[in-house]
């Protein structure tokens, strides 16, 4: 995977598969501390205590079809390559993943198209709510599907085409307003 | 964050029409995109979004795009399955946004699957090599 938005998409798929109804995705670019941090927190069924320490092992998977699981191990590898850290934490209800990288590290991939990641998530899992928060030293952008759901009412799924179109325009305009740039550069 | 209440009301109206259409016409076509680690790494995200975009552009109100985990054939990712009521499932492999254009035009609009993008075609090709 060549950008961070794809890692995020992959990690959040785990949350969806774990039955989460709310997923919080936070990206913090801190140039003063030279840190790039991605936090994903969900309220899914969580990871059993017995396996929490081995979930980042590529030879551990809950899947029955084969013996490898790459999502978490790839993310951990990335953190290690970028002089960062990777933690998976059991919450009272759900899971919290923190992926830290040295911001200026030569091996740190660009963020990539985070708007597309969110759109893919929302259109694929219309019943799940997503809170997306991006912060850097100058600005902040927050997007919360719950506020859209509130106005639209419960009878309209978020993956209705006209709603997705609206969400796309909200994300694109919100992200392009950021200084420091959440984009493909 | 919300631009204007008016805008959202407009969207609500359109969305309700879409839903009404689906209700009246029953279960339509389902496009299922594999979005596990293998699929994402192979480029499933642009493929999925291209489907959404094209379906929207053509206003195909009987089509829904959903996602699934690993389909189990990682070397053929991105994989897209098309389910039509009362028809056999069609599995497209090694999909790209360009291929999506053709699948939407020929399969979703005109009902003719694009055989040269299907898994059957791909496996035959490999067997003959």
TrEMBL record, chain A:
GO terms, molecular function: kinase activity
Record keyword Phosphoprotein present: yes
UniProt signal peptide: none
Catalyzed reactions: ATP + protein L-histidine = ADP + protein N-phospho-L-histidine
One Pfam match: HATPase_c
Domain Histidine kinase: 1-105
Keywords recorded for this protein, A-Z: ATP-binding, Kinase, Nucleotide-binding, Phosphoprotein, Transferase, Two-component regulatory system
Keyword Metal-binding: no
EC number: 2.7.13.3
InterPro entries, per database record: HATPase_C_sf (IPR036890), HATPase_dom (IPR003594), His_kinase_dom (IPR005467), Sig_transdc_His_kin-like_C (IPR004358)
Domain of life: Bacteria
PROSITE patterns documented for this protein: HIS_KIN
Name this polypeptide is given: histidine kinase
Organism: Caldicellulosiruptor diazotrophicus
Automatic annotation (TrEMBL), chain B:
Superkingdom of source: Bacteria
Matching SUPFAM superfamilies: Thioredoxin-like
Keywords: Iron, Iron-sulfur, Metal-binding
Keyword Iron-sulfur among UniProt keywords: yes
InterPro entries, per database record: Thioredoxin-like_sf
Protein name: Ferredoxin
Naturally occurring in which organism (per UniProt): Caldicellulosiruptor diazotrophicus
């Amino acid at each position: 995977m060549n950008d961070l938005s794809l890692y995020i998409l992959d990690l959040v798929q785990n949350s969806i598969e774990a039955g989460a109804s709310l997923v919080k995705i936070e990206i913090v670019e801190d140039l003063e501390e030279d840190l790039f941090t991605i936090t994903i927190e969900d309220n899914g069924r969580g990871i059993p205590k017995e396996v929490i320490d081995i979930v980042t092992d590529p030879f551990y998977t809950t899947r029955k079809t084969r013996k490898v699981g790459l999502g978490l191990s790839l993310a951990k590898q990335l953190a290690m390559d970028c002089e960062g850290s990777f933690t998976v934490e059991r919450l009272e209800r759900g899971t919290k993943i923190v992926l830290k990288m040295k911001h200026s590290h030569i091996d740190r991939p660009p963020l990539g198209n985070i708007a597309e990641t969110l759109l893919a998530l929302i259109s694929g899992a219309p019943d799940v709510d997503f809170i997306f928060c991006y912060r850097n030293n100058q600005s902040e952008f927050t997007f919360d599907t719950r506020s859209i759901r509130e106005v639209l009412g419960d009878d309209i799924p978020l993956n209705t085409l006209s709603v997705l179109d609206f969400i796309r325009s909200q994300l694109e305009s919100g992200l392009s307003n950021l200084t420091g740039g959440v984009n493909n550069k | 964050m919300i631009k204007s209440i008016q805008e959202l009301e407009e969207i609500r109206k359109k969305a309700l029409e879409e839903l009404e259409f689906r209700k009246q016409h029953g279960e339509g076509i389902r496009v299922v995109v594999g979005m596990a680690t293998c699929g994402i790494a192979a480029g499933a995200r642009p493929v999925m979004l291209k489907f959404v975009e094209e379906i929207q552009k053509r206003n195909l109100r009987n089509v829904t795009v959903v996602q699934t985990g690993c389909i189990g054939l990682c070397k053929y990712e991105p994989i897209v399955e098309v389910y039509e009521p009362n028809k056999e499932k069609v599995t497209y492999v090694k999909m790209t946004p360009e291929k999506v254009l053709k699948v939407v035009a020929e399969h979703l609009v005109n009902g003719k699957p694009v055989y040269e993008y299907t898994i059957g075609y791909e496996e035959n090709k490999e067997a003959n090599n």
